[in-house]
Amino acid sequence: MFKAKPGLGEEAARRIAAVLPAVEAEAGTTLWLVLRSSADAEKIFLVDLFDSQGSLNAHMSGNAARQIFATVPELLAAEPELHPSAVIASKPAA
């Protein structure tokens, strides 16, 4: 979760979303979503899934992560919170 400084949520979300082309080039990234909270416009959630631990490692050291960490931190009120998780249940996308 990314918490932007007051008034900077839209710009932070835009910068995060701008890395989509780099993510699309990652073969092992199976899902990548940028969500901006409707309850708190300064909160941005990045949800991603990978087909293996190797794909996650490649993503975290790849172009998308580098671009986010180069352009977004100045807009944030705190360090991003990472919550590695396991899928327990899902509904396939249409």
| Radius of gyration of CA atoms, rounded to a whole number | 13 Å
Number of domains: 1
* CATH-defined fold name: Alpha-Beta Plaits
Mean pLDDT, to the nearest integer, reads: 95
CATH architectural arrangement? 2-Layer Sandwich
Largest sheet: 3 strands, antiparallel
What percentage of amino acids are in beta strands?
Answer: 15-25%
Count all strands and give the number: 3
The end-to-end span amounts to 26 Å
The CATH class label is Alpha Beta
Anisotropy-based shape: globular
Give the strand order of the largest sheet, numbering strands 1, 2, ... along the chain: 1-3-2
Give the topology string: H per helix, E per strand: EHHEEHH
Please work out how many helical segments DSSP would assign: 4
